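Sample pair:
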Amino acid sequence: MKVLIWIKHSPERRYLVDLHSRELVEEIRELLEKKNHSRAIVTALARGKFEREVFDHDLKGVKAGLILSEHNVRWDMTGGTKG
């Protein structure tokens, strides 16, 4: 599953990360259920496969199953979980 990590500090940064194992996906899901977004971000960046930084101009073309920031999480309902 791919995750778009959105860090809203100045300057704003977005990273696309692939959670390449079922165990990692479950660990991230558990952290999010506990509202521990910051730790989920750190875990995804440390243990997931970094794909690229996402810039404004290519934001529309990004396929991600999860959009994650320090305070919010959104599951993408457009079918991006397979990408």
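The first strand starts at residue 2 and ends at 7.
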